[in-house]
């Protein structure tokens, strides 16, 4: 290719206006800053996020508690499902300094958290989660206890207005929040219908099976400190704590608190909840005894 | 007499659904054969909870495996699990739930969500169901299975309909593109199979560990956990499906479980069942060759209910679409629960709230239909029809000269009257005034009379 000579006058013109590359603009100040501590994105209030208090969502609280069991330093960030790459909370963003000094950010969804924790946490002497029993009892928590939780929170009319509506569907525009609540209720109903293909949900049956599940869980805990005789709390302890703690601390409507009464029946589960709360969430809300008596 | 309604038999097993099989096993173990009959009705809409299996005792319907156990415990004063200790009972519940949730999803995956197996399953359902139902029920069940298994498997197991990696369109399938596509499908099938097998192995291993070397899960006596295990595992083992990954996994890797199922099948589920004989009500008759076809189960006869079944199905679908769903409407099951005043009041409050919800939904629907009709009237769609009829009348008048046409005209008018009345009753349901309707009909009557008058005149004129 033949290069065209630039005319003299153009060259002088360009020389007087040199091409300048400015340095990149700094990120806006509202941008999240990733420190060295990984951040766990959970459903929580901004105040609770600062003090590291328990999330109000069972699956978030489960991982929050399990991370604390493993002695991992992290901070919680209030978020919602729309922020998550998988569409469900919690997820974690951790930043690590790699060898080449360039920082590397990894997003860990909840189903990969176990592996991540294994790599970064202390090695605990917890019960073996691969054992057949642990799997079976985890199914009990994830099926029957979860169903009853969903029913109590979203489908009991008063609870859904006063608890689910406020916790999950808070929006300054009332039309938006009522629409969100409607969506959340439909989602919860869909989940419940998986176990009830007929489409008929009988609250007594749902609560009764949750009661049976709690009875069974309480039986296997027995007088042990942690489940399955582990020396440290494990993932199953976190799963149970996530439900019992929230069931005990949420302000259920006094006539729709069947789940609370079912938990109150088992002293060893109450003790288990208190042990974890005292040790790992010292600033958490304590269950309110006056409120309990109302039921 | 207890009636156990179930999904009908197939694959030589007395039922095609694992829950039904478990319920059969439980009743066979606890009830004397004269006390119950097995009815392969295959119609979940019979029971108020719209689930099968369901136990009918007189007017009381009890749905589901656990519901049935609970009911029989109340009725007989004892249950199969009474001999178990506290910890064993906790184990029975936990493992039972594990089998129901994970095992159930595995069966869903194997039977409903593997395409070639679903085709076979559709054939099996065709033997159980009457003509209209056999076309839509398998689809409904498949949809349910997909809804249940969304947490366990990625969408890719629904192989051909995966939206993320679209297959080339048939028009683009040139000879060169074909092998590549086939390879892609093959690779995907292999990946799928590995994933499925991993899930299955995980599940079966846990169950086998719990079972150990014993004859039953808890010592030498069967329990409710055995019923569930037999129900779910036997369907995995005996269902002969073209893509039998679950069966292969059981046979090759978990022989101990197969031995267990083979061993207890005889007295928990009966021996082989002849599907055709059972469905035609011939199961209780011993065939001339002396072969028992009922498999040792007290089969009953299904009362055919085609029209109500289809109507209820359609009604349910319509209600589902509109968003009206029933919640705990059946309160008859455990009536003996003590009810304090407070509880009753609360329930009343709940009911009124639910009623309010339903009323709101109904109001929205009625409002929409009303708006649509209003729009039609305003837009002239309905007046156009009235105009059309006027034209008919004139046409009748013109051709009225020919004899015998008279009758037809009258008949038409009658038909129209009926139509309008139908429309009127629909309006009454929608809550529109009766006056409108009456005025409408009156108007039509007058028109008709006029028309007839004109008609007669015309015909007499033409005669003259």
TrEMBL record, chain A:
InterPro entries: Metaxin_GST, Mito_Protein_Transport_Metaxin, Thioredoxin-like_fold. Residues 212-276 form the Metaxin glutathione S-transferase domain. Signal peptide: none annotated. Coiled coil: none annotated. GO terms for cellular component: SAM complex. Residues 58-159 form the Thioredoxin-like fold domain. GO terms for biological process: mitochondrion organization. It comes from the Eukaryota. PANTHER family: METAXIN RELATED, OUTER MEMBRANE PROTEIN (SAM35), PUTATIVE (AFU_ORTHOLOGUE AFUA_1G13180)-RELATED. This is Mitochondrial outer membrane protein. It comes from Tuber borchii.
Automatic annotation (TrEMBL), chain B:
Residues 326-352 are annotated as: Disordered. Its main location: mitochondrion. Residues 331-350 have a biased composition (Basic and acidic residues). Residues 202-262 form the Metaxin glutathione S-transferase domain. Keywords: Membrane, Mitochondrion, Mitochondrion outer membrane, Protein transport, Transport. GO terms for cellular component: SAM complex. Transmembrane segments: none annotated. It is found in: Mitochondrion outer membrane. InterPro entries: Glutathione-S-Trfase_C_sf (IPR036282), Metaxin_GST (IPR033468), Mito_Protein_Transport_Metaxin (IPR050931), Sam37/metaxin_N (IPR019564). It comes from the Eukaryota. It holds the Pfam family Tom37. GO terms for biological process: mitochondrion organization; protein transport. Residues 20-141 form the Mitochondrial outer membrane transport complex Sam37/metaxin N-terminal domain. Belongs to the metaxin family. This is Outer mitochondrial membrane transport complex protein-domain-containing protein.
């Amino acid at each position: 290719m033949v290069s065209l000579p630039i005319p003299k006058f153009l060259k002088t013109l360009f020389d007087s206006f040199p091409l300048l590359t400015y340095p990149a603009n700094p990120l806006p100040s509202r941008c999240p800053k990733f420190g060295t501590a990984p951040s766990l994105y959970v459903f929580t209030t901004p105040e609770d996020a600062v003090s590291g208090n328990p999330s109000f969502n069972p699956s978030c609280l489960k991982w929050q508690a399990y991370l604390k069991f493993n002695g991992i330093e992290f901070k919680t960030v209030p978020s919602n499902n729309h922020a998550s790459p998988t569409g469900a909370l919690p997820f974690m963003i951790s930043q690590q300094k790699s060898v080449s000094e360039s920082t590397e950010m990894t997003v860990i969804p909840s189903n990969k958290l176990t592996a991540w924790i294994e790599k970064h946490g202390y090695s605990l002497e917890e019960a073996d989660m691969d054992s057949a029993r642990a799997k079976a009892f985890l199914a009990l928590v994830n099926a029957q206890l979860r169903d009853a939780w969903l029913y109590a929170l979203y489908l009991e009319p008063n609870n859904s207005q006063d608890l689910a509506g406020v916790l999950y569907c808070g929006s300054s525009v009332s039309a938006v929040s009522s629409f969100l609540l409607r969506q959340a209720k439909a989602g919860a109903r869909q989940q419940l219908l998986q176990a009830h293909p007929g489409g008929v949900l009988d609250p007594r049956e749902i609560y009764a099976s949750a009661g049976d599940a709690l009875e069974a869980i309480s039986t296997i805990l027995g007088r042990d400190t942690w489940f399955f005789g582990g020396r440290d709390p494990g993932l199953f302890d976190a799963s149970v704590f996530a439900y019992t703690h929230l069931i005990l601390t949420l302000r259920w409507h006094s006539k729709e608190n069947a789940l609370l009464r079912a938990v109150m029946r088992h002293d060893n589960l109450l003790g288990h909840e208190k042990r974890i709360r005292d040790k790992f969430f010292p600033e958490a809300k304590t269950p309110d005894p006056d409120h309990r008596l109302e039921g | 007499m207890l009636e156990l309604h179930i999904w009908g038999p197939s694959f030589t097993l007395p039922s095609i659904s694992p829950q039904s099989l478990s319920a059969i096993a439980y009743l066979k173990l606890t009830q004397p054969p004269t006390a119950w009959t097995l009815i392969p009705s295959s119609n979940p809409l019979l029971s108020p909870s719209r689930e099968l299996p369901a136990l009918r005792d007189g007017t009381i319907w009890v749905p589901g495996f656990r519901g049935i156990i609970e009911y029989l415990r109340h009725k007989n004063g004892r249950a199969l699990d009474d001999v178990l200790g506290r910890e064993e009972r906790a184990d029975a519940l936990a493992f039972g739930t594990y089998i129901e949730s994970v095992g159930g999803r595995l069966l869903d995956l194997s039977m409903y969500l593997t395409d070639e197996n679903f085709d076979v399953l559709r054939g099996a359902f065709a033997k159980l169901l009457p003509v209209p139902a056999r076309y839509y029920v398998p689809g409904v069940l498949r949809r349910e299975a997909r809804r249940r298994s969304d947490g366990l498997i990625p969408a890719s197991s629904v192989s051909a309909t995966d939206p993320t990696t679209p297959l080339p369109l048939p028009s683009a399938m040139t000879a060169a593109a074909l092998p590549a596509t086939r390879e892609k499908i093959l690779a995907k099938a292999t990946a799928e199979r590995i994933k499925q097998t991993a899930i299955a192995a995980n599940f079966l291993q846990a169950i086998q560990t719990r079972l150990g070397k014993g004859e039953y899960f808890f010592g030498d006596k069967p329990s409710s956990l055995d019923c569930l295990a037999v129900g779910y595992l036997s369907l995995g083992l005996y269902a002969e499906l073209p893509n039998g990954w679950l069966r292969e996994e059981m046979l090759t890797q978990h022989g101990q479980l197969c031995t267990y199922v083979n061993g207890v099948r005889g007295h928990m589920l009966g021996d082989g069942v002849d599907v055709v004989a059972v469905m035609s009500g011939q199961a209780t008759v011993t065939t001339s060759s002396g072969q028992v076809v009922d498999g040792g189960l007290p089969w009953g006869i299904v009362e055919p209910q085609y029209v109500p079944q289809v109507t209820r199905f359609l009604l349910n679908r319509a209600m589902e679409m509109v968003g009206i769903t029933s919640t705990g409407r059946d309160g008859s099951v455990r009536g003996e629960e003590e009810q304090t005043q407070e509880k009753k009041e609360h329930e009343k409050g709940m009911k009124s709230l639910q009623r309010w919800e339903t009323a709101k939904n109904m109001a929205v629907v009625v409002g929409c239909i009303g708006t649509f009709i209003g729009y039609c009237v305003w837009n002239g769609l309905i007046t156009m029809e009235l105009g059309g009829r006027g034209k008919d009348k004139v046409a009748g008048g013109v051709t009225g000269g020919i004899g015998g046409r008279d009758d037809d005209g009258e008949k038409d008018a009658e038909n129209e009257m009926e139509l309008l009345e139908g429309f009127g009753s629909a309006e009454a349901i929608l809550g529109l005034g009766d006056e409108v309707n009456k005025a409408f009909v009156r108007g039509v009557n007058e028109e008709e009379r006029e028309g007839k008058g004109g008609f007669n005149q015309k015909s007499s004129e033409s005669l003259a």
